[in-house]
Design brief:
By secondary structure, this protein is mostly helical. It is 76% helix and 0% strand. It is globular. Residues 279-283 have low confidence and may be disordered. It is a multi-pass membrane protein.
Length: 283
């Protein structure tokens, strides 16, 4: 009993913090989602499903988010894994710290500045101008889904690299040597040893990037040029410009529900994959 009280005292600050900062705002948004827009904007108490019935009006924002967020996560994984593998397994300790610092250097500047830099790179005087020099004309990159995809991969790549690097850095190199001594090719060793043991880092990196991308609004606003909307952009419009708090709350709760279902399915998949990996190792 004394141990339970002690645990309760230790957990109370974190519990109160989560209740005030996470649960209560969600409860407020949930209540607002059943209300109506006032004559001058804002929220009027009501009990109606009208806001949820209007969700198809924001289908484009949901579609862009549900397509580009997973694609951005996958693209970041495909780029980050070889980089993390090189830093953890192949790179000499002499250069490892320097290269890790270079990976995190972009976080030293605002994502707003980095996004504006991509406007120049993808704009008419950037890559399209270089392509015109070699005879490829009328290439438009800025204000397209491709530009948004490039921006989100660049912006969130470090968040994918570091969890994978930590998993690979903890890898017992003797396992790789044993696999090689038993006659496995480097590719087979990677597929059967390295990749399964790095699953926790991959799972963590994908989770971090995907959740943040689902709520992203700055990069689509800058590199999408008002033509590629995410749900985050819709929420900014509904709460700050249209002042339709009821509809904005319904959109927000729908996004939360989609993320909850997606993350739950993803975690079950990762848990099952981890169980299969343990079974294989026991065999």
């Amino acid at each position: 009993m004394r141990q339970l009280r002690r645990n309760g005292v230790l957990l109370a600050p974190a519990g109160i913090w989560l209740l005030v900062m996470l649960v209560l705002p969600l409860v407020v948004v949930f209540i607002f989602s059943f209300g109506e827009r006032g004559a001058a904007g804002g929220y009027v108490p009501a009990l109606t499903l009208e806001q949820y019935a209007n969700l198809p009006a924001r289908w484009t924002a949901f579609k862009n988010t549900l397509i580009l967020a997973p694609l951005g996560t996958l693209a970041a994984l495909l780029i980050a894994y070889p980089l993390a593998y090189y830093l953890a397994v192949r790179c000499s300790p002499k250069w490892r710290t320097t290269l890790l610092i270079l990976v995190i250097v972009p976080f030293w500047t605002s994502i707003l500045i980095r996004s504006y830099a991509w406007i120049f790179i993808l704009g008419g005087r950037g890559i399209p101008a270089l392509l015109e020099m070699v005879g490829i004309d009328e290439v438009r990159l800025i204000n397209t889904p491709f530009a948004v995809l490039v921006g989100i991969v660049y912006g969130y790549l470090p968040l994918m690299v570091f969890p994978i690097f930590v998993s690979l850095d903890k890898l017992d190199k003797r396992l790789l040597e044993a696999s090689s001594d038993l006659g496995s090719t480097p590719l087979r060793t990677f597929w059967q040893v390295t990749l399964p043991l790095s699953v926790p880092g991959v799972a963590t990196g994908c989770m971090l990037v995907f959740i943040l991308l689902m709520g992203e609004f700055l990069i689509p606003a800058i590199l999408g040029g008002g033509k590629v909307f995410f749900v985050g952009n819709a929420l900014v419009d509904l709460f700050l410009q249209s002042r339709n708090w009821a509809f904005g709350s319904a959109v927000a709760m729908t996004l939360v529900l989609i993320m909850l279902v997606t993350v739950t399915v993803y975690m079950k998949f990762i848990s099952r994959l981890g169980g299969q990996r343990d079974d294989i190792s026991l065999m």
